[in-house]
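Standup notes
- DV: blocked on the single-chain target, sequence here:
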Amino acid sequence: MSVKTTCAYCGVGCGIVATPTGPRTATIAGDPDHPANNGRLCSKGTHLGETIGLDGRLLHPMIGRKQATWDKALDLVAKRFRDTIAQHGPDSVAFYVSGQLLTEDYYVANKLMKGFIGSANIDTNSRLCMSSAVAGHLRAFGEDVVPANYSDLDAADLIVLVGSNTAWCHPIVYQRIRARCDAGAKLVVIDPRRTETADEADLHLPVKPGTDVALMNGLLAWCRDAGALDQAYLDAHVAAPEGFWDHLAEGYDLWSVAKTCDLPVADLRRFYELFATTPRTVTMFSQGINQSLTGTDQVNAIVNVHLATGRIGKPGAAPFSITGQPNAMGGREVGGLATTLAAHMGFAPDDVARVGRFWAAPTMASAPGLKAVDLFRAVGEGRVKAVWIMATNPAVSMPDADRVRAALADCPFVVVSDVIADTDTSAYAHVRLPAAAWGEKDGTVTNSERVISRQRAFMALPGEAKPDWWIIAQVAQRMGWRSAFAYDRPADIWREHCRLSTYQNDGARRFALPGHAARGNAEYDAMQPFRWDETPFADDRFSTPDGRARMVSVTQKPVAGTLDAWPMTLNTGRYRDQWHTMTRTGLSPKLARHREEPLVEVHPDDAARLGITDSGLARVATPQGDSLYRARVTPTQRPGELFVPIHWTDRNATGGRSGRLPRPLTDPISGQPGFKATPARIAAVASDWRGFLIVRDETPRPNCLWATRVAVPCGTVWDLAGNGDAAKLDALLPRGERIEAIDAARGTRRIAILREGRLAAALFVTRDGSLPPRDWLVAQLAEASAAPTLLAGRAPGVQVDRGPIVCACFDIGLNTILSTIADQRLTDVAAIGKAIGAGTNCGSCRPALAKLLATKGTTHAA
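- DV (later): unblocked, structure below
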């Protein structure tokens, strides 16, 4: 029986139809009735069925390295938290939660910490991706309301993407943007990197990192001088501080902004003229704006322009913050951030009293708690002595992650709730609690446009795994608050959340869920997606004491120059087919193919100067730490700047640990770390040999200079490089019949291990020669008997190499696409899709296909 649920990945919030085909298998399709995606899915959503097995799952409570009963584990957690609070006070404990939690999970965790423990020391990994947007909304609107819907994209005549590689990070939204552009709308992309999204833009502005305030202040000054302000709207609905317009008088003219942002004057003028003359404009922004030491100011600089031109609360006109996680918005609604209380209320005395009455809370938090970076700093300093981490991996994802690891190692009591048994974070846990995974969860999530959808279970809970809300409620009951946390099902929590949203809410807060508190269990189970506050600010009323929006004076701060020891600027971000720390996407063989290794992207001029070769190894270092990467030399980078992905961990690579590199510095208002502009340096790293290891069964991470794990059908591949004697790798090979070929002159070793005639492992290493393509060898893992040409690395006769994967949805390689283009004389992306299907599902590879058509293809075009 098919089940309608919601995707586990980004904030687009796509609906999914899951049809179980076995206890741990299912077919996955887009829900044609869901308003967020109308049946389309990106590559990650398409291949969710490859990630729902039990590989690596935590299936039982663990105390230390020993399995424990739920009663024993929960009693221990409750006792240690209770004793810590009694001895050191409520602020000596903390929760660190996640946008992977459902709203019901978030609600119970927030209620326990802020209403019963009596501290606001609960923060979320959403702090790392969108808290600057929250702070900007609060300053401008008086409430954290995203004032846009996806339908605004359908009505816009100009779409401006700022700090967002939307084609990769939000592919379904990007296809909506492309459809509108095909109908005549213009697309401007503002991003230091020339990404796949920028490739399809009408105008790309490769802005200098950290200069977005100057760019937007200059735009505001241009609109004023061009007569593009909506003075009637300003007079009636917007308040500006005294001297607001005066602060634009110096440094924000066209030529000054072009110099500050390192942009051609002609391109900047084109953008300003386009914006000023296009009333229906949506400005969509993401991590490039938020993940900055001036992120909140950058958000308000964008919002200021929209308020001043009256481009808000109207179809096709809005500033639009798009979130990164599936339930970042739900966490914001219930108070999952340390800086908010609950239901869009803050820590004003009236709000504290109101929520306290509703919860009948014995010990209400009365002030904001520790934000993420400060929280782990407090753990390291011994001020927080017990921490509970839920559904996230801060030992990888936090800035200056080595310091976070040291803090966790010294913390007296660490609890981790997760679906995976061994993560970089759980290595420091005194107690590990097995949580429900996607496909087993039951509750709600809210997407970037405020649509609330049901996430439904279609598989039974494995082993002793339990929902997060149940785990939290059980600990709360054992801490002495049994009646306040006596929930039987997630519908009970949902109804309480809905009641709080309307409790003594006289309309001052736009977030409210009237009528939903009366829904019975059956109605909850059958809930259809719905949006709260259908058209925010269409009534020109804002959540401020006088009902007017606020312009915020923001000034471009000096951008720090490079230092002799750290002459480059490091940016971090996501890859198209991977997610966070790969605990889910890393299980999918198809998702691994697009980017099999963590790459550092470097401009050709920098590479030539530093002796870095394409596909060679390079070490990136910052004052916080260093990590090794495979180099990708590309003109899409600005000179002097580097880009690395965030996904790789100690569990799947010896390098790529990007969390070690950024500074633990934050925006002073939002507390969001600045991941986008870290002083850095890069150096080439030599290796004596390179190779790969293919294994059917799991093997420990190879102990060599470079090793990255890639999931493949029926097994695993490790890409390898190193120095010294490569023969030490033989210890990784399983037992079995061994066949090998050695060419001492070229330093080549090829070994295959057979069991009962089937391939169990293959190790290919070379010092000077070439390595064969791996696809055919990987396919041998599934064969009933090994081919006689194993050590040749290819089938008998002519073998076609399909090349690097470009279309992950349909597993189509670069060489296949190029030969199809040539053989059929194709001239557009649609024709490629018709011929072989590439680009017809999520569309995230369409920019790469367009580039192949334009350039006749290189391996880097994908």
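- Follow-up: Residues 70-88 form the longest helix (19 residues).
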